[in-house]
Design brief:
Elements lengths: L1 H26 L6 H34 L6 H29 L1
Length: about 100
């Protein structure tokens, strides 16, 4: 259940961003267009994924060094859970920064 929610979260946030753009265009804010939000969303999502990957790899190396056990399922957890959530957090940051620009 949680994995499904983690995988669907970036798509749900993209739909929310589309709704924000529609509301802003309906109110006639001309400062910040929708394609800028899409570009920021992708850029910040990639930054979020990259940061979470670096943290996950560092945690794996530290865990293996300290305990001597292999952290073999951690990449799967990152692919199915931490990666999509990190992308969604990047999308949220992009939406907040975009919204601050138009106000």
């Amino acid at each position: 259940m949680y994995v499904f929610l983690a995988l669907i979260l970036p798509i749900a946030l993209a739909v929310i961003e589309i709704c924000f753009v529609a509301v802003v265009q309906h109110i006639d804010f001309a400062k910040s267009p929708g394609p800028l939000l899409a570009l920021k969303s992708i850029k910040y999502g990639i930054v979020g994924v990259a940061l979470s990957l670096v943290v996950t790899i560092a945690w794996m190396l530290g865990y293996e060094f300290l305990t001597g056990y292999n952290a073999c399922n951690t990449p799967l957890g990152w692919i199915l859970f931490y990666g999509p959530i990190s992308f969604a957090l990047g999308q949220i940051v992009a939406l907040v920064r975009w919204w601050k620009n138009i106000l």
